[in-house]
Amino acid sequence: MNIALSAVVIFILLLAPIAFYLAFAFGRFPKAGPKIGLLEGLMLSAIFSVILHTTAISLDHLEIRFDIIALLIGGDLKTFATAVTNNDFKMQLQDFVCYNAILIIIAIVAGRVLRWLVCQFGWHSRSELVRLYNQWWYLFQGYKVERDINTGAPVLFDMVYIDVLVNTNAGTMIYSGYLIDFVCKGEDLDRIYLSEASKREFKIAAMNEKGNYLTNKPSEALPIDGDTMSIPYNSIININLHFVTFQTDFANDSEDSIIEKTA
Amino acid sequence: MTNARISKTAQAVLRNKALASAISLALSTNEYDAAKNGITVKINGKEYIIDIVRSSKGTEIKLIAKE
Fold this sequence. Notes:
The complex is a heterodimer of chains A (263) and B (67).
Chain A: H1 3-25, H2 38-59, H3 66-74, H4 80-83, H5 86-120, H6 135-140, E1 159-168, E2 171-185, E3 188-201, E4 205-208, E5 211-214, E6 222-223, E7 228-232, E8 236-246, H7 248-251, H8 255-262
Helix pairs in contact in A: 1-2, 1-3, 1-5
Chain B: H1 8-15, H2 17-27, H3 34-37, E1 40-43, E2 46-55, E3 58-65
Antiparallel strand pairs in B: 1-2, 2-3
């Protein structure tokens, strides 16, 4: 009994729904995949595979040698020589490879087309089933703003200004700056990059007749020299975002004239 | 290539370090009315106050020419 051969045949038959899912989910900042085990994944893929292949063969009116497929999947090849000749098997194998290749290509194209439709109509931000990106991406792109949260559309803004509360050896500090980039690992934020960063103490020390105490008022902002500041997420306590819009003075001008004006 | 959304207007602001720094400082002050704190920026020899307004549209920034 040849188990390896039957495993290869079954895997080939499962490829089309897997290709569809990967084509749909592939992109930057993808959401985490479904949390299911290997066995559940294979079973789920087998169900979709059966539906897909049944649909495909109902459209194809050529003869399908199920007896050969059953022999290969069963792995018992003792009767193989009587069931099919070499030449016949060659033709059947070519047809099988061609059928699966076409099905996989169609699955990939269908997956990408569905992803495009989901993006075009903004379904990804309204339905968890077709959500494409991780939650941080939606936060930084302006999808998590109260006034527009139910519309599924992002707020309009020019850039994000961020205040982050960070635990340092010197105490809790607020770092602020323009968000110029961020890195995620799966669903988790790994680090953020700020430009024109400044820092403030979260609470400033004050003194009264009873002695020193910390007030609930941050200190004055101190600009930090340098072009880009990287802050790892594991040292961040919380993040406050400002979706900044530059008003008419900037928006009505072309990019070149703004540069000229501000130079 | 960046993953954060930065419009062309914002890119133009970021290219001018002095302006970007002044707006950043204004945004990081405790009060949103930066004009009260006197945060000004000089463009072509003319002084402007950075005006920050919190509205239903978000955080709006404009430059007001100083008389």
